[in-house]
Amino acid sequence: MHTDLVAALDIGGTKIAGALVDGGGSLLVRAQRPTPAREGAEAVMGAVNDVLAELAASPLWHRARAVGIGSAGPVDASAGTVSPVNVPGWRGFPLVDRVAAATGGLPVTLVGDGVAMTAAEHWLGAARGYDNALCMVVSTGVGGGLVLGGKLHPGPSGNAGHIGHISVDLDGDPCPCGARGCVERIASGPNIARRALENGWRPGADGDTTAAAVAAAARAGDPVAAASFERAAQALAAGIAATATLADLDIAVIGGGVAGAGEVLFAPLRASLRDYATLSFVQGLTVTSAVMGADAGLVGAAAAASTVRRAASNGVRAVAAP
């Protein structure tokens, strides 16, 4: 029986999660710490070390053969560094080297969190069985990843498929990334809520101004709330269609909190796709919701590490090495 495990890390601005993951994608041991995002670099690394130490205390740790990390980005897998927008203390932080040192020199693979989610959905989720896929996380930001020719395609930096920063409105609002009219600037949860408020939507008695509250209002028939989701869906459709046309894709999988709006998002998204995905080879593109949920980052980090280990054993350059 194959007994090797991967130690997986899912690093975000709110929490740092870890797990020992087996060859079937089951999470056998879990650990988690809050991310001290407003503190310095070493405080954040201390939380990572605490998660790793808790995993290492498990009797199963001796079966760990590699570490996979899915991190909020930008990441630079070729350099082994991370600079998450929502963790200001980490800029060019040498995470791969530090994790390798903390785990006694285990090989470490680093990918962006959108790529990790993609790896999970392709391995065990909604993109399983599809050789050419775009998987997206639509939440506080908009990220993504690609499967091409049946294989995860993280690219040399670990960020390939980062659809959130495709410009879909040439004269649109400035995006914090420095460009204009990015998918993220239109379709992320905070921007859906911002646009609804700017156009006259008002929250209920609870004062909830999140995208989830806007979705609830849209379901209840509020036209301003519905229009904000329709605009987000149009931006997503334009970005998805561009990516599908460029890479000849079969399926787009959408996860993250905004996807939880259900048909409030997906109905206008499918309608807008008919306007943008017009060439014959992308007209049959399937669009569906992600199914891996909160564990996608950990499962995907393990999948990415396993993919790289197999590639390395076959003489292919790994995405990242300690």
Automatic annotation (TrEMBL):
<dbReference type="InterPro" id="IPR043129">
    <property type="entry name" value="ATPase_NBD"/>
</dbReference>
<dbReference type="InterPro" id="IPR000600">
    <property type="entry name" value="ROK"/>
</dbReference>
<dbReference type="InterPro" id="IPR049874">
    <property type="entry name" value="ROK_cs"/>
</dbReference>
<protein>
    <submittedName>
        <fullName>ROK family protein</fullName>
    </submittedName>
</protein>
<comment type="similarity">
    <text>Belongs to the ROK (NagC/XylR) family.</text>
</comment>
<dbReference type="Pfam" id="PF00480">
    <property type="entry name" value="ROK"/>
</dbReference>
